[in-house]
């Protein structure tokens, strides 16, 4: 039965493309890729030659229907993104939604995901966590988003790029406090893989004090608020509610 395979690709180390991932990419009729040049390189590493369809944020809505029509006509296709698991801070959700709505079988070929890989080595509580993806690029929006997480008790997982890592850590310090336990995972599965742990203040010092620590791709994980912080926040809210009763 014609299937849309959602295939995870490596986040650095090419050996992380699973044997089943390779097999599926080799045998589908075509591969929908976020960046065809990037995926072309991955495929050539594995000696795979396949027609590629560029499917990115800007044309996904438009192309979804055409791709679903191919699936309905009996062709199996694969969806990949530049790195890791498609749909996780990457394009694909519109296509998957359209395929499901059309009754097409959608099947995952699981593999690397930076958030999960980072959590697995962080040593932070991870029985419950919240994936926050990228914070807004602009300062005000970023602080607002963080503020909404001030009382979050689960471990929070963020994606960040090298140009904003320092600013983001600074804003996290303001909202969560200097002493909040956090872990920074950089360049996972690559040559300069580094996992730093400490509190938000010490992590920012390490990042600001060493140009090399600002290079590459990051996952920032911040432990959730503890009970006493929660209690303080709740107290603050109660005080505010009382006060606002008396405001005009
Ligand atoms: N779909 C991908 C996944 O499954 O992880 C994420 C794609 S998102 C556009 C790219 C972001 O993922 C980077 O900015 C970084 O925050 C994170 N990331 C990707 N590869 C990474 C790596 N090797 N080490 C640390 N973070 C990584």
From TrEMBL:
Keyword field = Cytoplasm, Methyltransferase, rRNA processing, S-adenosyl-L-methionine, Transferase
- EC number annotated for this UniProt entry: 2.1.1.198
> What is any one of the record's Gene Ontology cellular component terms?
cytoplasm
Q: Where in the cell is it found?
A: Cytoplasm
Please report the stretch or stretches of sequence annotated as the Tetrapyrrole methylase domain. Answer: 3-203
Q: What class of enzyme is it?
A: transferase
Q: Name one GO molecular function term.
A: rRNA (cytosine-2'-O-)-methyltransferase activity
- Any Pfam family from its record, for instance, is TP_methylase
Give the catalysed reaction(s), semicolon-separated: cytidine(1402) in 16S rRNA + S-adenosyl-L-methionine = 2'-O-methylcytidine(1402) in 16S rRNA + S-adenosyl-L-homocysteine + H(+)
Query: Would I find Cytoplasm among this entry's keywords?
Result: yes
Its primary localisation, in coarse terms, equals: cytoplasm
The transmembrane segments are: none
- Role, per record: Catalyzes the 2'-O-methylation of the ribose of cytidine 1402 (C1402) in 16S rRNA.
Which PANTHER family does this one have?
Answer: RIBOSOMAL RNA SMALL SUBUNIT METHYLTRANSFERASE I
Cited NCBIfam families: 16S rRNA (cytidine(1402)-2'-O)-methyltransferase
Q: Which family does it belong to?
A: Belongs to the methyltransferase superfamily. RsmI family.
Can you say what this protein is called? Answer: Ribosomal RNA small subunit methyltransferase I
Task: Supply the source organism for this entry.
Answer: Stenotrophomonas tumulicola
Name the gene that codes for it: rsmI
């Amino acid at each position: 039965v014609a299937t849309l395979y959602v295939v995870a690709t490596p986040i650095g180390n090419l050996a992380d493309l699973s044997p089943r991932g390779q097999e599926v990419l080799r045998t589908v009729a075509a591969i929908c890729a976020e960046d065809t040049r990037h995926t072309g390189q991955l495929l050539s590493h594995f000696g795979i030659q396949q027609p590629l369809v560029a499917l990115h944020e800007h044309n996904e809505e438009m192309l979804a229907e055409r791709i679903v029509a191919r699936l309905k006509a009996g062709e199996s296709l694969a969806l990949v993104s530049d790195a890791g698991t498609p749909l996780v801070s990457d394009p694909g959700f519109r296509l998957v939604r359209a395929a499901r709505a059309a009754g097409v079988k959608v099947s995952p070929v699981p593999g690397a995901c930076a958030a999960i890989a980072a959590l697995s080595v962080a040593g932070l509580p991870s029985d419950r966590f919240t994936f926050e993806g990228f914070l807004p690029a602009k300062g005000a929006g970023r602080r607002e988003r963080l503020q909404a997480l001030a009382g979050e008790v689960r471990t929070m997982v963020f994606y960040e790029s090298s140009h904003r890592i320092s600013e983001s850590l600074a804003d996290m310090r303001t909202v969560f406090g200097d002493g909040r336990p956090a872990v920074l995972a950089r360049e996972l599965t690559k040559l300069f893989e580094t996992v730093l742990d400490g509190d938000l203040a010490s992590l920012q010092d390490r990042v600001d004090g060493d140009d090399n620590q600002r290079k590459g791709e990051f996952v920032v994980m911040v432990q959730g608020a503890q009970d006493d912080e929660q209690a303080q926040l709740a107290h603050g809210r109660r005080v505010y509610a009382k006060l606002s009763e008396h405001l005009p």
